[in-house]
Amino acid sequence: MKNVKILGAGCKRCVQTAAMASSEASKLGIEIELEKITDFADIARFGISSTPGVVIDGKVVHAGGLPKPEDMAKWLSA
């Protein structure tokens, strides 16, 4: 099971990114544990300044703007 963290205050793009992670994982048959990190101090610990951020298994794979679904699938498959 992969641990996926979505970093952001809950804006529309953050919500869309979380939904995309769930959707792409389902399409790929990958089980994920999805966490939403909304506290700015916690987000800052990952070293990103723009949201949404995506962290998979402890590694920051995206920061700022809505990621592409194909990129999310690639990150989840790695």
Name the shape in a single word: globular
Q: Which structural class matches the secondary elements?
A: alpha+beta
Distance between the first and last residues' Cα: 12 Å
How would you state the average pLDDT, rounded?
96
Strand/helix succession:
EHEHEEH
Helix content: 25-40%
What's the count of strands? 4
Main sheet attributes: strand count, strand direction, barrel closure? 4 strands, mixed
Whole-angstrom Rg: 11 Å
State the helix count. Answer: 3
Low-confidence stretches: none
* Amount of beta strand: 25-35%
With strands numbered from the N-terminus, the spatial order across the biggest sheet is 2-1-3-4
State the main characteristics.
alpha+beta; globular; four-stranded mixed beta sheet; 78 residues
Question: What can you see in these coordinates?
Answer:
The structure is a single chain. The chain has 78 residues and is an alpha+beta fold. 40% of the residues lie in helices and 27% in strands. The protein has three helices and four strands. Strands 2-1-3-4 form a four-stranded mixed beta sheet. Helix 1 links the parallel strand 1 and strand 2. Helix 1 packs across helix 3. The model has no long low-confidence stretch (mean pLDDT 96).
